[in-house]
């Protein structure tokens, strides 16, 4: 193409024609955007006599008249651009009051006339100006460093380079983000113009000024001839394209061209890059020609230049118009920034899935699919580049600034996936969750997001195996999902064990040092001055000591300040590790001689049982997380007062360790639909749900008509109840529908089927049709539907289908479920077919969401702790009553005294039965629920009663998953086939 050739030509380095070449020096500060790196000065035309223009006096008269016309057009154009830009700026500020559109000027040396003009123009329009002054002899690397900084500054909407030509290399010009390139000379902006996509970039203000003047002529431009003399680089290409688009014939010439006179004689418009020493005889111009001088818009006028002659006024200058258009670009850049901050419609491109039969192993399916680059997925769902922190090619952290950007965006529909009481055969909640979002997004073309917990490496290498889903409904790459991910659990482990180390160190130091020695170390003198840290001032306030000068504390106050007086027997904070290790359930620490006999018995918990994990899952931001971390109780003093992480002085360090873990991780399903993976508290010893933040981010991203599908751990009596009573209280979110997952195999076990053992063939009761066992087992399904309806939320039953299930068994379960109050009950085939196998479920969920949800909590926070426990035991588990041990009763009384009685309750109970006895399947009745102890996670914000015997550190089985993890990560509920 002709224009493409011109564009390629313009991108080369040129040297202007004959005569001396003037290179702009630092004092004159230069071309501003590399529209010219060198130029030949053009001498003002001198109209004297003859040659196609009549007498000298008549030509001069015509020139003066022309000058007056052009001058008026110049003033009108400038005024209109300023008015238009001011109006656009006002609309931007009205729509986004926090914005302050800013032009950043990067200069070398002192101000010049060109720079002063642009600053004044910015002031007239109402823009902020940020001026960065580099040394006159600065290097290209120094300029690049500043440009990169300005690129990342969200408060800067335009970058204007006032630099010597030697620094205006293509490298520097192309480093400026195209959306901030207010001179429109980066390759991308020029390329957009050449390809006709100018609306996506920013136009050159110098070229725009030329067009503004020409557009104000009475005569149409179409069919006229324009000659560009001495123009090179991007400006030449831009003017060519714009003038040709107006129907003009455009010719270009070097100053040394032999055909220059002939070209000018036929020109209706002549554009030059400056005025100076080159003679253009008046006989070359035809009457009525328009002469435009771009020089003053490209460089400041030299104070030492010769005085202009009268006939030089024939040349129209465009300095103020181009300055006004440059500011208009800043305004429009800020308008685009505001538009980009709004909700962006999705452009999701699903990945094609070609299921095989028989279904290969999970790892084979995962590796057979090529995931989209995570940056591409982020763009498809409306994330901005600055909101993404990539961890390799297939996963990324998402910044919480997204919540601020989309704070006014309505939430989408909120779907919770729960299950019947789990059995060793498994129910497949994760696969249902993933299959459902694959169906919604890839097949029904509805925006949807899955929100899953991060799996612990304990179960991954234990009995359970991975948690990425299975078959053709999984998160990919499954190895990255199941192992390490982005290091959140490791961050929790480090933070948790920092607290544990601080606890034992403080006990040792207080036992071996005087008050004075402790005080000198805790509040050291630096350069002769002592100061309390902010966290120490907080401790003083909690102690009732309203002093800020360390020298004014009395000995009694010093003693209260430095001594936490932790009772080693009442330390409740444990160390953690993300491995199933039964031999860490009870240990002794402090046995080395250096610990001076200060040993004590303690234990390790699994990392996901840490209170810090629960805090991560329930927090709504950095400030809230830091506050919660500070409130964590690590033990009691000898006087019975709670000791917190704030008292230890470690809160700031914990927040630093957790600063990246607080951001949800973005991944994708086998069909390329988005998934947030964040937090992973167990549901039997914690609240068992993914993070509030992940749900909040997803609900904004999917849009008002989209769907967020999140999963609650274990059965509805455990994970769902805590989702409603704890997570929904923390988030303020209300669910629209519950998807209750069941399998015929699990229902048969609840109906009295025989026990099963991993790795051993299933008894025939589970592989042959047995309607009696199915019918009896549906009692558990009916109970879980009843529990969901206690909270006023519609229920859809998802029956996870296996190849051994018969049509009669499937029909029986669906009939019983619908008769028990479910809005719908549908068989699901996502494991073998992917999203296509869950389309019926997706339709059922869509219909159920249309029903009005009357969500309500099970109890009021003002209800006494004992009654909260009793309400859950009777209404959810079906117990006759509860029985408190003396220890539990004493703890409740203590928490009442401390003001913790208004916290919700998180029951720590076996997940294998509605009762406290794991072997009791179905719907046990007539039992008393024993509460052996009651503990408090003050930072997380709940009281947790311990029901029966609950271990916070699992052990490895005889044949753990780590023995086969090098080959395959088994989906637990498929390992029995």
Keywords:
977 residues, alpha/beta, twelve-stranded mixed β-sheet, five-stranded parallel β-sheet, 35 helices
- Indicate the proportion of strand residues: 5-15%
Number of helices: 35
What composes the largest sheet? 12 strands, mixed
> Total number of β-strand segments?
32
Helix content: 25-40%
Oligomer: single chain
3D architecture notes:
With 977 residues, the chain is an alpha/beta fold. The chain is built from 35 helices and 32 strands. Helix 6 packs parallel to helix 8, helix 15 packs across helix 33 (839-850) and helix 23 (622-631) packs across helix 25. The longest helix is centred in the first third of the chain and has 40 residues, at 56-95. The radius of gyration is 37 Å and the shape is globular. The two termini are 64 Å apart.
What is the secondary structure topology, with strand pairs?
Elements: H1 2-10, H2 56-95, E1 102-108, H3 113-125, E2 128-134, H4 140-152, E3 158-162, H5 170-173, H6 187-194, H7 205-215, E4 225-229, H8 233-245, E5 249-253, H9 260-265, E6 269-272, E7 290-293, H10 295-298, E8 315-317, H11 319-341, H12 362-368, H13 374-380, E9 388-390, E10 396-398, H14 401-405, E11 413-419, H15 429-443, E12 448-452, H16 457-460, E13 469-470, E14 473-476, H17 478-482, H18 488-512, H19 515-522, E15 525-526, E16 529-530, H20 534-542, H21 555-562, E17 566-571, E18 575-577, E19 587-589, E20 600-602, E21 604-606, H22 611-618, H23 622-631, E22 633-637, E23 642-644, H24 645-648, H25 651-657, E24 665-669, E25 674-677, H26 692-701, E26 707-711, H27 716-731, E27 737-742, H28 744-750, H29 764-767, H30 771-790, E28 795-800, H31 807-819, E29 824-828, H32 830-833, H33 839-850, H34 865-877, E30 881-884, H35 886-898, E31 928-937, E32 942-947
Parallel strand pairs: 1-2, 1-3, 4-5, 4-6, 6-7, 7-8, 11-26, 11-27, 12-25, 12-26, 18-21, 27-28, 28-29, 30-31
Antiparallel strand pairs: 9-10, 10-24, 13-14, 14-24, 15-16, 17-22, 19-20, 22-23, 24-25, 31-32
Helix pairs in contact: 1-8, 2-11, 3-11, 6-8, 7-8, 7-11, 15-33, 18-25, 19-21, 23-25, 28-30, 30-31
